[in-house]
């Protein structure tokens, strides 16, 4: 059996590496139009950072795992084709700002149709709006010259989380495969299930109809994001009342009906999927006339925007209502720890908010490159989800500096804002940092990872998200 995957990104690369690792009897080729990306996958400096990924790639690469730009050849030869291309939010036209732009998906489907001389199973790995399989089926069937070629479309959404992708792929909670309720559809489901059964217990391989599988992915992300927005909403109330959001989260998380996960209040959720998928879900609801349902889910995104804005206002308010010309050290730019991914990271909106008020942001992140940071801070909204984005020009910005040394980033700064929960931040010598900063020295912990009592003992004015406010901060707000 031969598998091809179109799209060598955060999903295509790691998922296919795991399939190849666990299925030595299957040849797996990941193809992409981005030559640099493919080159990087063939090197030991992979294009994405993910703990454990390099080891998996090194074990399978050259054995039964290959990365190539020869899309036509490998797609033409494959029995199963995963499609894992970008599905960005539309930036113009009907549905701009919410609907999914299926340009890249349709392009992939046209390519599959044009090179297919044998029947194929086409697997939706990208997150797509519900009913996409129907549209893709039409494109495939109308564009393939050979009437004997049959395309069976499956939905197999990816539930991995960046930062823990390898663990998630090795031991997934479940794998979901949706297919048509026909004999050939069910056969295709069984074929794909056999692949996963190489390492995943059968009871964790769930099957469904196509539309349920497509909708389950959007729903899963909407629910996860909703939990974050819910606890973030409560964090604002905690600050106003003297309650502590960690204590509230712990208390509710011990209820087995609620559970403890995804209850960490923070400066906001980020990542390539949550906002995009919720907006997409809302758009689908609107197009079928369910305005109230759409409005309900929009609120999850609005709350996230509010939380980022609230954080910026806290910083500015605490610093005597002016950050003009003040150096602010930003610790962490990635949207979460253990990844170099900055897509929709809350750090973008927070930095932009501070810069708008005249602050000079000095950014340190252990995994994100200066080019990426400058690109993210100057790009228009949703631009990051285009295949060419990582190659687009990166412009220096007047009030932004990127530092490779966290100590230098804090030197002469009025404040440190912790925006990503990198473990290394907990180990810093804050007493030494304090000495190098302008007084009063502020720390705004947007992830609640630092030892706040210790920081206060050193002399810092500490803002901890969702926690009772320092006396010093209260005065500024009354
Ligand atoms: P990505 O941007 O990292 O990778 C997409 C890749 O597809 C790019 O390298 C691009 O060059 C390539 N591509 C686009 N059109 C192509 C074409 N016609 N032929 C060959 N290559 C093409 O995106 P990522 O994060 O891997 O996401 C892919 C899909 O998976 C999206 O729909 C996303 O919503 C979904 N997803 C992402 C998750 C994540 O954690 N990043 C998790 C679950 C789903």
Please render the helix and strand layout as text.
Blueprint: E1 2-6, H1 12-22, E2 27-31, H2 35-41, H3 53-60, E3 65-68, H4 71-77, E4 80-83, H5 103-115, E5 120-124, H6 132-143, E6 151-155, H7 165-170, E7 175-179, H8 183-196, E8 205-209, H9 210-241, H10 245-253, H11 274-287, H12 291-318, E9 327-331, H13 346-356, E10 360-364, H14 370-378, E11 400-402, H15 406-410, E12 415-418, H16 430-436, E13 442-445, H17 452-458, E14 461-464, H18 471-477
Parallel strand pairs: 1-2, 1-4, 2-3, 4-5, 5-6, 7-8, 9-10, 9-12, 10-11, 12-13, 13-14
The site of 1,4-dihydronicotinamide adenine dinucleotide has 28 residues, from helix 5.
Active site: 273 (nucleophile)
GO molecular function, one term: NAD binding
Protein name: UDP-glucose 6-dehydrogenase
């Amino acid at each position: 059996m031969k598998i091809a995957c179109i799209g060598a990104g955060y999903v295509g690369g790691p998922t296919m590496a795991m399939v190849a690792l666990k299925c030595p009897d299957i040849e797996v080729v990941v193809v992409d139009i981005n030559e640099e990306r493919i080159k990087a996958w063939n090197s030991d400096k992979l294009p994405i950072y993910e703990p454990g990924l390099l080891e998996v790639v090194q074990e399978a690469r050259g054995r039964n795992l290959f990365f190539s730009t020869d899309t036509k050849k490998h797609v033409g030869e494959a029995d199963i084709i995963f499609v894992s291309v970008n599905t960005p939010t539309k930036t113009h036209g009907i549905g701009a700002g919410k609907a999914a732009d299926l340009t890249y998906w349709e392009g992939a489907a046209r390519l599959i149709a044009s090179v297919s001389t044998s029947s194929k199973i086409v697997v939706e790995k990208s997150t797509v709006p519900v009913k996409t399989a129907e549209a893709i089926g039409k494109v495939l069937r109308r564009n393939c010259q050979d009437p004997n070629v049959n395309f069976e479309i499956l939905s197999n959404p990816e539930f991995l989380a960046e930062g823990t992708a390898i663990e998630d792929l090795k031991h997934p909670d479940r794998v979901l495969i949706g297919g048509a309720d026909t004999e050939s559809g069910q056969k295709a489901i069984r074929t794909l299930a056999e692949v996963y059964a190489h390492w995943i217990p059968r009871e964790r391989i769930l099957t469904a109809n196509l539309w349920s599988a497509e909708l389950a992915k959007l729903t899963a992300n909407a629910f996860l994001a909703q939990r974050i927005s819910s606890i973030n909403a409560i964090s604002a109330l905690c600050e106003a009342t003297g309650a502590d959001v960690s204590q509230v989260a712990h208390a509710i998380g011990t209820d087995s009906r609620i559970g403890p996960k995804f209850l960490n209040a923070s400066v906001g959720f980020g990542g390539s999927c949550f906002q995009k998928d919720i907006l997409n879900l809302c758009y689908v609801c609107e197009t079928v006339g369910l305005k109230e349902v759409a409005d309900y889910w929009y609120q999850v995104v609005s709350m996230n925007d509010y939380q980022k804005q609230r954080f910026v206002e806290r910083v500015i308010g605490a610093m005597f209502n002016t950050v003009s010309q003040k150096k602010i050290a930003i610790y962490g730019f990635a949207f979460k720890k253990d990844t170099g991914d900055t897509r929709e990271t809350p750090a973008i909106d927070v930095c932009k908010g501070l810069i708008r008020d005249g602050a000079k942001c000095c950014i340190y992140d252990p995994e994100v490159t200066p080019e990426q940071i400058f690109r993210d801070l100057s790009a228009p909204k949703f631009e990051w989800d285009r295949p060419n984005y990582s190659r687009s020009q990166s412009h220096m910005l007047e009030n932004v500096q990127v530092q490779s040394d966290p100590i230098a980033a804090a030197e002469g700064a009025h404040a440190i804002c912790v925006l990503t929960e990198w473990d290394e931040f907990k180990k810093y010598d804050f007493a030494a940092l304090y000495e190098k900063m302008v007084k009063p020295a502020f720390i705004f912990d947007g992830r609640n990872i630092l030892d706040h009592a210790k920081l206060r003992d050193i002399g810092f004015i500490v803002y901890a998200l969702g926690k009772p406010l320092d006396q010093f901060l209260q005065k500024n707000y009354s």
